[in-house]
Amino acid sequence: YPVILTEPDSDRALSEAILNLSGNSDKMRLMSETGKTILKNNFSWGKNAEATFGFIQKTISEFNLKSNVRN
Question: Cα-atom radius of gyration of the chain, to the nearest Å?
C-alpha cells in the first residue's frame, strides 16, 4: 500500500510529511484510490451488520454460560 511513515510523536516529522505529500498530486491520488479500494473491499454495511450480530451472539452465549455457572 502507498503509505507515509513518520517518526512517532514527532510534530515536525508529521508536518514535513504532510507538506511533502501536498506537493505530490500523483501520490495523493494513488493513496486516495488505494484507500477507496480497501474500504470497498473490506467494509460494508452488510459486513458491519454480520460482525455486530456475531458479537451480540457471542456476548449472549458467554452471559448464558456464566449464568449457568452461578445457578
Answer: 21
Render pLDDT for 30-58 as a digit per residue (tens, 0 to 9).
Answer: 999 999 999 988 889 998 999 999 999 99
- pTM of this prediction exceeds 0.85: no
CA–CA gap between residue 26 and residue 28 (Å, rounded): 5
C-alpha span between 56 and 33 (Å, rounded) = 34
Residue 11 grid coordinates:
510534530
What single string gives the DSSP state of each residue in the chain? -------TT-HHHHHHHHHHHHT-HHHHHHHHHHHHHHHHHH--HHHHHHHHHHHHHHHHHHHHHHHHHH-
CA angle (43 as vertex; 38, 45 as ends), nearest 5: 155
In the DSSP assignment, the letter for residue 6 is -
